[in-house]
Specification:
By secondary structure, this protein is of the alpha+beta class. The protein is 27% helix and 33% strand. The radius of gyration is 22 Å and the shape is globular.
């Protein structure tokens, strides 16, 4: 099998060598393993996977927020990319990746990720678009392990795309960026910067996620008015604030926080907004419950909600964040992909827009692989007028798709 795949790669390279790179990037040829994506088993440890991801999210979000700006990232996109990497990891690197993300043991991890991503993709409907895409690019002539390719094909639906990182690094970079832009409807036009590919790059693992969803109950645009938002430093700024005076929603008033869940059409996805009484609690992972715990306290009712519009985008170098979780980058053993390989880099770009109609968001993650019902009571008033945490979640599984904080909606 390995020899046959190597021959296929060589044949693809020969075909690619006959064509020009063009302005869109280097020639890329898809070489897929001869195994289709499989349905995940009924006993896949998906709840364990999501629980670990929930814990990871609460720990990592404050680290990403150290810039002091509005933030957004996709824990799910990040986890999918590193689950693919773990398929090629060996030795202590397997434990380091699993420990950082709270992954279940292999091979249950891949079955669970297959089950989760298939469930998320099934949330797409007439008013909701949720798309996930995976791919691996490898250096021309590089002999990728067959078992690794089989795992990516059967559990992630990812094929191998052959390119030339060494002789055409910029063309390869543009090809990957074009793929990501297409998968994210141009919300992530450039995932990889000019220095992302070096002469030691041998492979790139990429996940892309795109969401466009309408609120189950949309806000009336005419009700949006300039209202004060109180920043963490005590200053105030006037921002466009949406108003739903009698919104059927689930909400909670917990110890030190108020939360409200805004469902999207179809009911499978929702945004959870968590507003701490003290904005400083956002920076302390122990001060607020994890997202799953907050969601577990929600009760149905009628709320009088004021919520600012906002948008955020981010370009993240994930190496420092993951180092705090015990995963050192560059480093590790990815010899299950090919000989003498390590995790060379990990980056993510994310983008989100929230308005009266709903939410549109996208994220892409790249891992560089280098050598070594209405009650009789009045509506409960909830005014989001200070820094808050938000998460677009899959309701049934609790998977966090997009997470971030808003410290100043005017930015």
């Amino acid at each position: 099998m390995r020899r046959r795949l190597a021959a296929l790669v060589a044949a693809a390279l020969a075909a690619a060598a006959c064509g020009g790179g063009g302005e869109g990037g280097s020639d890329v040829e898809l070489v897929a393993a001869d195994r289709p994506r499989q349905a995940a088993p009924a006993d896949a440890p998906t709840p364990e996977l999501v629980a670990g991801l929930d814990t990871f999210t609460r720990a990592v979000e404050p680290v990403l927020a150290r810039s002091g700006d509005n933030t957004v990232f996709s824990p799910t996109s990040l986890a999918v990319a590193f689950a693919m990497a773990e398929a090629g990891a060996r030795g202590d690197t397997v434990d380091a990746i699993a420990g950082a993300f709270g992954f279940p043991d292999q091979p249950g991890l891949h079955a669970a990720m297959n089950d989760l991503t298939a469930t998320l993709e099934a949330a797409s409907g007439e008013d909701v678009t949720l798309e996930l895409a995976n791919a691996i690019w490898a250096q021309s002539g590089f002999d990728v392990e067959a078992d690794f390719l089989d795992t990516l094909a059967t559990h992630y639906g990812a094929g191998l795309q052959v390119t030339d990182f060494v002789d055409d690094p910029d063309g390869s970079r543009r090809a990957i960026n074009d793929w990501v832009a297409d998968a994210t409807r141009d919300r992530i036009p450039e995932l990889l910067g000019e220095d992302a590919i070096t002469d030691e790059t041998r492979a790139m693992l990429v996940n892309a996620a795109y969401l466009k969803a309408e609120w189950a109950t949309q806000f009336v645009e005419e009700a949006t008015e300039e209202e004060p938002f109180h920043r963490a430093d005590g200053s105030t700024v006037e921002v466009p604030t949406m108003h739903a005076p009698a919104l059927h929603a689930r909400y909670a008033r917990g110890a030190g926080y108020t939360a409200v869940e805004l469902p999207y059409r179809g009911g499978e996805l929702a945004m959870l907004v968590v507003v701490p009484d003290d904005p400083a609690a956002l920076d302390d992972p122990a001060a607020l419950p994890a997202l799953g715990e907050v969601a577990g306290t929600l009760t149905a009712g009628q709320v009088d909600l004021r919520l600012p519009r906002w948008a955020a985008n981010a370009a993240l170098d994930l190496a420092p964040v993951l180092a705090e979780r015990g995963l050192r980058i560059p480093g590790g053993d990815l010899s299950g992909i090919g000989p003498d390989l390590e995790i060379a880099s990990a980056v993510q770009a994310a983008d989100i827009t929230v308005d009266e109609n709903g939410t549109e968001a996208a994220a892409a993650t790249a891992i560089g692989v280098g050598v070594t019902s209405a009650p009789a009571d009045p509506p409960v008033p909830i005014t989001v007028d200070r820094p808050f945490l938000y998460a677009v979640r899959h309701v049934a599984t609790g998977a966090p798709l997009f997470v971030g904080r808003v410290v100043d909606p005017s930015r």
